[in-house]
């Protein structure tokens, strides 16, 4: 005898009565379905979000992200703010906690990682909390070494 795979009206009614709150797996999926792009940080609209990770921290996070399966750097750069590959390359080659701070990827990547941290519900790292105490308004978005190299001093003429 063939098995009847059709659902009866009673079965359909039971399925429709099941609410969102009855199934914990549905709740979990719903919580994780929030996209990082939906998060808005205070000061994001005018570019004044304080940054509490130095350039080396951001480079470390980017390298970790690159190791995830299916990750494409060009796709990611486009979605965090239309950053060009050559800017990313220059930023990643720089060394030091403030080297590359003037590069647009520093700010854009920080915003991305902060939003992802919020979406995933992760707590702030101890280093991040130390940086917040030491720099309440965030890090300066400027490469200090580059600024020192390009600044010229002009002496007054003594004639």
How would you summarize this macromolecular structure in one to three sentences?
The chain is an all-alpha fold and 159 residues long. It contains eight helices and no strands.
Properties at a glance:
single chain, 159 residues, mainly alpha
* Apparent shape: globular
Largest sheet geometry: none
Mean pLDDT: 76
Class by SSE composition: mainly alpha
- Give the termini separation: 114 Å
List how many beta strands DSSP finds.
Answer: 0
Order of helices and strands: HHHHHHHH
Strand fraction band? under 5%
Low-confidence stretches: 1-30, 147-159
User: What percent of residues adopt helix (DSSP H or I)?
Assistant: 40-55%
Radius of gyration, in Å, reads 24 Å
Task: Please give the count of helices.
Answer: 8
Question: How does the SSE layout of this entry go?
Answer:
Blueprint: H1 9-17, H2 24-32, H3 55-66, H4 73-81, H5 85-93, H6 104-120, H7 126-134, H8 144-150
Helix pairs in contact: 3-6
Pfam families: DUF7726
Region (Disordered): 1-27
Biased composition (Basic and acidic residues): 1-10
